Amino acid sequence: MTDFSAAQITDDFLIRMLKGCVQLQSRPDISNTINQVPVDHVARVIAASTFNPPVEPLGVAQVTSHPRLTTNEFLGALENHGYNVSKVDYESWRDHVDQYVADSSKEEFAL
């Protein structure tokens, strides 16, 4: 998990999802994987392929994230950082989003 104190793009969907979960004080139970690669890994692949260029017939350096992080692991990291965001089933979380957005007294929802 990326260190939250590091510089981040704050308008990214994944960052907005983190903020939205904090706003709702819950996170959806989603087990799919996230296609996310840390920038330091990308930098290592670029440096390695500069010194050892890929050879034909492909000649392409692939940047992959293995093992992939699941959405539950990604959002669960909020609890590791002290946020109270209990995991709930997706339908309940979605309903909570609807209620939050409908309440005009609340801060604008991150998503």
**Helicity level:** 40-55%
Strand order of the largest sheet: 1-4
Alpha-carbon Rg, integer: 18 Å
User: Which structural class fits the helix and strand makeup?
Assistant: mainly alpha
SSE string, helices as H and strands as E: HEEHEHEH
Main sheet attributes: strand count, strand direction, barrel closure: 2 strands, parallel
Strand-residue proportion: 5-15%
- What is the terminal-to-terminal distance? 21 Å
Question: Treating each run of at least 4 consecutive H or I residues as one helix, how many helices?
Answer: 4
How many individual β-strands?
4
Estimate the mean pLDDT confidence. Answer: 88
The coarse overall form would be elongated
Are there runs of 5+ residues with pLDDT below 50, and where? Answer: none
What's the structural blueprint in terms of helices and strands?
Layout: H1 13-24, E1 26-28, E2 33-34, H2 39-51, E3 69-70, H3 71-80, E4 86-88, H4 90-102
Parallel strand pairs: 1-4
Antiparallel strand pairs: 2-3
Describe this structure in words.
The chain is 43% helix and 9% strand. The protein has a domain at 13-37 and 67-102. The longest helix is centred in the middle third of the chain and has 13 residues, at 39-51. The strands form 2 sheets. A two-stranded parallel sheet has the order 1-4. The protein contains 4 helices and 4 strands; from the N terminus they run αββαβαβα. 8% of the residues are buried. The chain is mainly alpha-helical and 111 residues long.
